[in-house]
């Protein structure tokens, strides 16, 4: 019989308390993958699609998790700074969130889009999180449970409302892997073998100071990118018809943890308002407190037309995705965008519990304080090691780019080696950006300062090991 989540949490409680204190010696007791992980990875290779991704660079099989930690089937314990690609906002198996899901489970788990009390409570809570000027004029659309479906819904909404067809996106963007969302994503590799993707997508430079397509001073890259967008969209010979929407990430995640500067965000908002083009902000990864405010766009003093939210909105990884949009765009007819799993009552329960904890424990303050400390640490690593090109991020959505010291080009091979060195020392991190050369940190929003410092210590150890061949 499988153990209950509460039993798992109880078993891990003593281990979690121990891990909140500095540990001596390695946490990883076997080679990686260990024998049991090797067995499950081999079965996965035989039985699952070649599309699987994370096990290729993180060769472990997870048994259970609690807080900032996961344990594999071989008994190795890791600090998890991947957290379900940001979906596990409060760490694994948060007892209060687990309890909320358990209380809801025998009552109702699935209700399509019929109204329920807990869904109404969730809706009110989400609208209350918006800036004051948006609350009274915003509607919510429940989508399929993945962020990509919410992106697709946002595109359909704006095309329906405007009667236009084209979409503007940005270099380095990632909005999903479905047929439509990969068409508006900058990542070429995922669509190179897929013909006849969604037409009418136009990509513009994103203000990525280190690698922007527009050369010049990194300090002014935001204004240059916005000016280029404005000139092109307003130019009758610019070649691009007035789009149905402009979609962007306030902090590019898969693109390498690249925050947009305020001057760029404000200029894009001004341009889209002047042209009557809906502005969609994709907050699938940056939303729900990840950057230190509930939504990242709030830090730039703008009001978008459409917000896409998923991942952390489900509390502890429960699948849930929504779009929040200005009521003037609500031209849907009944059934215009549906999904069998858009009424996940368990996800509503988890989301409400997580939201209460975030407010009660002032978790966003923790995000801001520890995020600033981590960015200072990463900046120091960049100063200390030539193969680290730039540290950047916002709140606890952070990254450091690995480069070739001689050329400054992204060095994905060394980044993979660093990811492996960290895993062997007990720290799980993600890679992203050009050539997968950005080491990404997505800790739980409520991570303790002790656990964070321990993880950063492991990061420095890994950098020292990987750096040695480059200095030889």
Q: What layout of secondary structure does this protein have?
A:
Layout: H1 5-19, H2 35-47, H3 54-57, E1 62-66, E2 69-72, E3 77-80, H4 83-86, H5 95-104, H6 117-128, H7 132-135, E4 138-142, H8 147-162, E5 167-170, E6 201-204, H9 221-234, E7 245-248, E8 251-252, E9 258-259, H10 262-274, E10 279-282, E11 306-309, E12 322-326, H11 345-360, H12 363-384, E13 388-394, E14 397-402, H13 412-424, E15 427-428, E16 430-432, E17 438-441, H14 449-471
Parallel strand pairs: 3-15, 5-6, 5-7, 7-10, 10-11
Antiparallel strand pairs: 1-2, 2-3, 4-12, 8-9, 11-12, 13-14, 14-17, 16-17
Give an overview in words.
α6 (117-128) crosses α11, α12 (363-384) packs parallel to α14 and α13 (412-424) packs across α14 (449-471). The chain has 472 residues and is an alpha/beta fold. The N and C termini lie far apart (54 Å). The longest helix is centred in the C-terminal third of the chain and has 23 residues, at 449-471. It folds into two domains: 1-81, Alpha-Beta Complex (Aspartate Aminotransferase, domain 1), CATH 3.90.1150.10; 99-360, Aspartate Aminotransferase, domain 2. A seven-stranded mixed β-sheet has the order 4-12-11-10-7-5-6. A four-stranded mixed β-sheet has the order 1-2-3-15. It is globular, with a radius of gyration of 22 Å. The chain has 14 helices and 17 strands. β8 (251-252) and β9 (258-259) form a beta hairpin. Helix content is 38%, strand content 15%.
